[in-house]
């Protein structure tokens, strides 16, 4: 449960030049691959970006992606756009597992929605060679921060309804 409460979104970016180990990145991606998916389709594809030039390009996709410039690694969560299904839901569940794994490893993260934005998809086709038949749904940035944000407490009992709204 600790990872749930300590997971925060670091919109102001990341600090230092410390790189996340390949072992930790693998743990994060494995957590994503262990997410539930509709009919166990496991439709995801993960593009790990750690090249500084590519990170700089991704940082310029939208105003909301600027923190990528200071990330150690960024992972794009993609799925086949030709398949009818629940890709956005599946990708969301994989992303949540990855964010919690990162928090458990004391790695800061930021989630950036990049779908449904056709201009962003077109740009990604150039930056990461994203196939036409694939959609990038989310971009997750990972890194270390100088100061950890305090744990969240988003408990809102007034949002809970039993049997009827």
Outline:
The protein has 165 residues and is an alpha+beta fold.
General description of the model:
By secondary structure, this protein is an alpha+beta fold. 32% of the residues lie in helices and 18% in strands. Helix 2 crosses helix 4. The mean pLDDT is 93.
Describe the protein's topology.
Layout: H1 2-6, H2 22-33, E1 44-49, H3 52-59, E2 73-80, H4 87-104, E3 108-113, H5 118-127, E4 134-143
Antiparallel strand pairs: 1-2, 2-4, 3-4
Helix pairs in contact: 2-4
| Count of runs of 4 or more consecutive helical residues | 5
Radius of gyration, in angstroms, nearest whole number: 16 Å
Taken from the alpha-carbon principal axes, the silhouette is globular
Portion of residues within helices: 25-40%
- Uncertain residue ranges: none
Estimate what percentage of residues fall within beta strands: 15-25%
Mean pLDDT: 93
Order of helices and strands: HHEHEHEHE
Number of strands: 4
Please summarize the sheet with the most strands. Answer: 4 strands, antiparallel
What is the oligomeric state here? single chain
In angstroms, what separates the terminal alpha carbons? 28 Å
Q: Give the spatial strand order of the biggest sheet.
A: 1-2-4-3
Class from helix and strand fractions: alpha+beta
